[in-house]
Each structure stands twice: as structure tokens, then as C-alpha cells.
Specification:
The chain is built from six helices and 17 strands. It has helices at 30-48, 105-113, 150-166, 194-209, 260-267, 279-289; strands at 3-8, 11-16, 21-23, 28-29, 54-57, 67-69, 81-86, 96-101, 116-121, 137-144, 172-175, 181-188, 214-215, 227-230, 240-241, 257-258, 301-302.
Length: 306
């Protein structure tokens, strides 16, 4: 195993197997994964701030075995921030998890060296008492079923945008980096279950209006030709792929913030394939547009009753 010591913003870090190809279809190496995460850090880190990260690791590349890792603090360098949080029900046998919060470029380089290709975060931050704070983001995950795709997701995203604006929210949108999209809005709540109730009601409303195009229940038999509005991602125990995270897909795509004008362009006939972005394209977009997913600069509104 080839191993070397590098310095990233004043931190020393051992990296290994830089030449290892993690995405064989496009000959994308671990060195390129690390390079991408270091270069995208200025726009990625604000979306990870205060949020414990769940890694999806692919040590043998995207054609090998993968595993989720929440309890990652045990092998983190001492300079990576650790948080101990109550374990969600899915983590059997544990009352707490020792997770990491990625705050610096060196933190991202460390994670990328673990082949943590995907970074997933909850819709809440760790509060002042080192406990999960109330959710500050609403997410609606749009997942197309068979015979549906990004064009159909754009149509649903546009409808969601209108409803969220009517409710005083300030939505932003990104691709999932896979088949679908996600619509977010910064929110204020006093009840951590409120976002799930609101999102479920909204998904049911859209499904009732157009049952041939939108579904809110996850049963596979209901989904051909339709878009699932997955409201359940608002459960405080769940996570969603972070903006600018790579995805473990054969062509090394990225979950990419997009403008609402790009959604409208697809609805006007543009090729939805133009909304699939790889790392170099994402970095070029950041250079040209800045952070299109600027939730910190968006209006944070009180979530309406549900």
C-alpha cells in the first residue's frame, strides 16, 4: 500500500493509494476525489457546518462493497471535531454515536482519503449543549419511478416551489446526483416533528391533485411513471446527501445546486441530461455562479401549521 504524508492548511495527514481508481468507468482516482473535495470546500463546508456527517464509504471503488459509517470519530485525527449524540433507533445496541463534524479543508481531505465518496447530513445542527437542535431545513426528496426522470422531477419541483413561496418560504433546489432532485427551504420550528407533518401534508396534496404524476407513498407498485415526493427525509433520525457531495455513480456525478431558471428551461424543452454534472463542471459552475444553494442568505421563515 502506497502511503505518504501531506500537509493541508497546516494539518499533517497520511494519505494512501492515491492512484487507486474508484470510478472505473471514467478512470477517476482517489487523488481526484481528494482534489475535488479540497477545491469545492469553500461552498461545501457551510452546508456541513454543525451537522454530524454520515459517510458512505467505497474503499474498493463504486464497483465494490460499500458501507455507511456514522460512528466515525474513533479513527479520526485529534483535530477533527467530534460530537456524541443520541443514537437513532436504527443503530441497534448503541445509546450514543461518536460522530464527526467536518469544518475545515483538512477534514474533507481526511474523509476523502477514507473513500467516503458521499457525505450525508441531517436537517439539524448540533446545539450549544451538544445535542441535536431543532430542524432548520425542510427537504422534499423527489425520486422518479420507472418511466419517469429528471423532466418529471422538474415539473414537481416547480409546483413545490410555488406552494412553498405561497407559505412564505424561500426554496432552493439541487439535483441528487443520481436520478432525482431535492427541494429545500430554511425554516424555523418549535417542534422537531413539525417538518415531517408539513412535508407529508404537502406531498399528499400534490398527489391528490395529480395522482397520475405524483405519489406520496413508497410502495413500488404505485410508482411507475410517477415521482415520489419523499417527505420522510425530515425525520430527525434521517440524513440526505449534502450539496456538492459526490455520488457513488459510475460516471462520478455530484449532487449539484441549480437555479430555478434551469428547472424552467427543462420544462420549456431543454434536455434534462444537462442537469447531470461531474466534478469539473461543478467547480466551473461555482466559479461562475457562486453558491446557488445559499440557504444562509435565504429567508428563514416560520413553518406554517400542518
Amino acid at each position: 500500500m502506497s502511503r505518504q504524508l501531506v500537509r493541508v492548511e497546516g494539518r499533517q495527514l497520511h494519505v494512501s493509494n492515491l492512484e487507486k481508481v474508484l470510478f472505473p468507468e471514467v478512470s477517476f482516482t482517489k487523488a481526484q476525489v481528494i482534489d475535488y473535495y479540497v477545491r469545492v470546500a469553500p461552498v461545501l463546508l457551510p452546508h456541513l457546518s454543525g451537522r454530524p456527517v454520515t459517510f458512505t464509504r467505497w474503499p474498493d471503488g463504486v464497483e465494490g462493497q460499500a458501507f455507511f459509517e456514522k460512528n466515525s470519530a474513533r479513527h479520526a485525527p485529534d483535530w477533527v471535531r467530534r460530537v456524541r449524540i443520541p443514537s437513532p433507533g436504527s443503530s441497534r445496541g448503541r445509546e450514543t454515536l461518536d460522530m464527526v463534524v467536518l469544518e475545515t479543508v483538512a477534514d474533507l481531505a481526511w474523509a476523502a482519503n477514507l473513500a467516503a465518496l458521499e457525505l450525508h447530513v441531517p436537517q439539524w445542527q448540533v446545539g450549544s449543549r451538544l445535542q441535536p437542535a431543532l430542524p432548520d431545513l425542510l427537504v422534499l426528496d423527489l425520486d422518479p419511478g420507472p418511466d419517469a426522470g429528471l423532466r418529471e422531477c422538474c415539473a414537481v419541483a416547480d409546483r413545490l416551489r410555488g406552494r412553498l413561496l405561497d407559505d412564505g418560504l424561500d426554496p432552493v433546489v439541487k439535483t441528487s446526483g443520481s436520478k432525482g432532485m431535492q427541494v429545500y427551504a430554511p425554516i424555523r420550528v418549535t417542534d422537531r416533528e413539525h417538518p415531517s407533518r408539513y412535508a407529508r401534508a404537502l406531498a399528499q396534496e400534490l398527489s391528490a391533485q395529480t395522482p397520475d404524476r405524483v405519489v406520496w407513498r413508497m410502495e413500488k407498485a404505485l410508482r411507475p411513471g410517477k415521482v415520489l415526493v419523499d417527505w420522510s427525509q425530515n425525520n430527525p433520525a434521517k440524513t440526505t446527501v449534502a450539496p456538492y457531495s459526490m455520488r457513488a455513480r459510475p460516471d462520478a456525478t455530484v449532487s449539484t445546486p441549480i437555479g430555478w431558471d434551469e428547472v424552467e428551461a427543462v420544462l420549456d424543452g431543454a434536455d434534462p441530461g444537462l442537469l447531470r454534472f461531474r466534478t469539473e463542471e461543478v467547480l466551473a459552475r461555482v466559479e461562475e455562479y457562486g453558491d446557488l444553494f445559499d440557504v444562509a442568505g435565504a429567508r428563514r421563515a416560520v413553518l406554517p401549521p400542518a
